[in-house]
Design a protein that fits this description.
mainly alpha, 259 residues
Length: 259
């Protein structure tokens, strides 16, 4: 991986992590397109830039985390199923599901579903003043929906937003809860990945990790600000069509290049 490639991957991570289009899927597809071979450093780099992106959310919503203990309790209820299922299925998912074909199919199916829920559900009004007011049962169900994102290409953001909409949140509340739930989920997943990786780096690799994390932080901050404004008035349909088009195009690309 070159410096230029690392910056491109970091931008992709920051922009896509909190949008319902799958950051993992985009990184897998981009890496395949640029000929980046999966190795220990590349895996570690992806973890570092994900942590850079999540730091943007943590800082953006820092006041929300000090507002009341209720948000911690609801986030814990939502995080619990992901923690259990993720721990049990981690090795299988990494070994068999991280490939461009799975990503492409997941992008297409997720896109179709995103368009469907946007037309059928997303315009319903919420009865909750704040996301903290949801029940523990609803929070837990959103966490179950998040587990679907363990399949690359599904999108953690899409899964949790859809789960939130089906559990009484409006589109803005569902989106914000998705952001907040990303903090414990991604920190736990990133920490677990780092524990299983080799942390011996060269000077060039350390520079790459630093630049990548910073680029992911900045691009995530900008993307989230723009996404919240867009989704409040337009919904998620455009993201659904984007997923479908990207998935189909990459299936054609793989077929043409015999990947």
């Amino acid at each position: 991986m070159t410096i230029t490639q690392s910056i491109i991957i970091a931008i992709i991570e920051g922009v896509t992590e909190f949008l319902p289009i799958s950051s993992t899927g985009h990184m897998i597809l981009a890496s395949a397109a640029m000929g980046i071979h999966d190795n220990e450093f590349v895996k570690t780099f992806e973890v570092f830039i994900q942590l850079g992106a999540i730091l943007a959310i943590a800082m953006m919503y820092i006041k929300r985390f000090f507002k009341s203990i209720d948000i911690y309790l609801k986030l814990f209820a939502a995080f619990l199923p992901t923690a259990i299922i993720g721990f049990l299925a981690y090795d299988y998912i990494k070994a068999y599901l991280f490939n461009p074909i799975v990503v492409s199919v997941s992008l297409i199916l997720g896109g179709i579903f995103l368009i469907f829920i946007d037309k059928k559900v997303v315009n319903s009004e919420t009865k909750l003043a704040e996301v903290e007011d949801m029940s523990y049962k609803n929070a837990f169900f959103i966490g179950l929906c998040q587990c679907l994102s363990m399949v690359p290409g599904t999108s953690r953001a899409a899964a949790t937003i859809i789960g939130g909409v089906f559990n009484g949140l409006d589109k803005k509340q569902a989106t914000e809860f998705s952001f907040l739930l990303a903090v414990p989920t991604m920190m736990a997943a990133g920490g677990y990945d780092l524990l299983k990786s080799d942390l011996a780096f060269t000077t060039d690799q350390l520079i790459m990790l630093g630049i990548g994390s910073l680029v992911a932080f900045i691009s995530a901050w900008i993307a989230v600000k723009l996404f919240l404004k867009y989704v409040s008035s337009h919904g998620f349909t455009a993201f659904g069509y984007y997923r479908i088009v990207l998935g189909v195009l990459f299936l054609i690309f793989m077929w043409g290049s015999d990947l």
